[in-house]
Design goal:
Layout (H helix, E strand, L loop, with lengths): L3 H9 L3 E10 L4 E12 L3 E3 L5 H7 L2 H21 L6 E6 L1 H4 L4 H11 L7 E6 H5 L2 H14 L2 E7 L6 H6 L4 E4 L1 H4 L7 H15 L3 E4 L5 H9 L4 E2 L10 H11 L1
Parallel strand pairs: 2-4, 4-5, 5-6, 6-7, 7-8, 8-9
Antiparallel strand pairs: 1-2, 1-9, 2-3
Bound molecules: guanosine-5'-monophosphate (2 copies), manganese (II) ion and sodium ion.
Sodium ion (NA) binds next to strand 6.
Protein name: Bifunctional diguanylate cyclase/phosphodiesterase
């Protein structure tokens, strides 16, 4: 468990870095990347997000951390677009704390403008539980951001409990199926059934589906058979630093 002090220091000393995990189409070309924060403490080395994101949320420091990740993602997306290296999107995780702020949508749009980032080059990942707190405000932000052209996805889908009625109210592009369901998709049983149902439902609503946590060839085969649109997981690549992401792009485009 981290202290608030060490988090403050890490922000001041710029100990955070953004890594990028590729997201592939069914045909195995890279359609997006998920931006994931990494903290390297000079003495203790790598500290996983699970060990500091909860504290960052409790202390409100997640607002600064989230802002850092969004700036990096916008800068990177603009750079890749300008260089003609990549025309897909970078997905950024949004915490419930950020989404609950009155100025959230304004700040996001302002950041894109600052880097002249094409709106469709950024996706915001929101969990079902982040929507629960103040659904009205969250819906308002997401509608505005979507109208601006930013992509919106529901992260860890299936683990929270958003009603279908509420999901329909949101302007979304993508559902990301939580890896807990993807784990069991290769064998016949409830997980495969659930994944199949999520995909049919998403397609009925006009949404694309990303399977997260794809680790085996058998899972990939099963997901293709269920018409899953996009795939992400260690089978393809771990989250990697920018230079390695560019290497993956040069191999795949
Ligand atoms: O990268 P890793 O799988 O270790 O991430 C663990 C958890 O931390 C995941 O739930 C992921 O969504 C979260 N996380 C990683 N980067 C960010 C970030 O930039 N912002 C927020 N809010 N959560 C993040
Ligand atoms: O909650 P969220 O979906 O944002 O979590 C993203 C996290 O999932 C990242 O920290 C990433 O390291 C992790 N992740 C990505 N692919 C895989 C995978 O194939 N298996 C496992 N176990 N974790 C993964
Ligand atoms: Mn995510
Ligand atoms: Na997820």
């Amino acid at each position: 468990i981290e202290s608030e002090r060490s988090l403050h220091r890490a922000i001041e000393h710029r100990e955070f870095q953004v890594h990028y995990q590729p997201i592939y189409s069914g045909g195995c070309s890279i359609v997006g990347f998920e931006a994931l924060i990494r903290w390297t403490d000079p003495l203790r080395g790598n500290i996983p997000p699970n060990q500091f994101i909860p504290l960052a949320e409790e202390t409100g420091l997640i607002v600064q951390i989230g802002s850092f990740v969004l700036h990096e993602a916008c800068r990177q997306a603009s750079d890749w677009h300008r260089r003609g290296l990549f025309r897909g999107h970078i997905a950024v995780n949004v915490s419930s704390i950020e989404l609950a702020r009155q100025d959230f949508a304004d700040v996001v749009i302002f950041t894109l403008q600052q880097y002249q980032t094409p709106p469709q080059a950024i996706e915001l990942e929101v969990t079902e539980s982040a929507l629960l707190h103040d659904f009205q405000l969250a819906e308002h932000h997401l509608r505005r951001l979507h109208e601006y052209g930013i992509r919106i996805s529901i992260d860890d889908f299936g683990t929270g409990y958003s009603s279908l009625g509420r999901l329909r109210q949101l302007t979304l592009d993508t559902l990301k199926i939580d890896r807990i369901f993807v784990e069991g998709v290769a064998t016949e049983g409830p997980d495969r059934t659930v994944v199949g149902l999520i995909i049919s439902m998403a397609h009925t609503l006009g949404l694309e589906v990303v399977a997260e946590g794809v680790e085996t060839e058998n899972q990939l085969v099963a997901l293709r058979a269920l018409a899953c649109d996009q795939l992400q997981g260690f089978l393809f690549s771990r989250p990697v630093p920018k230079d390695q992401a560019e290497f993956l792009l040069s191999r795949h485009v």
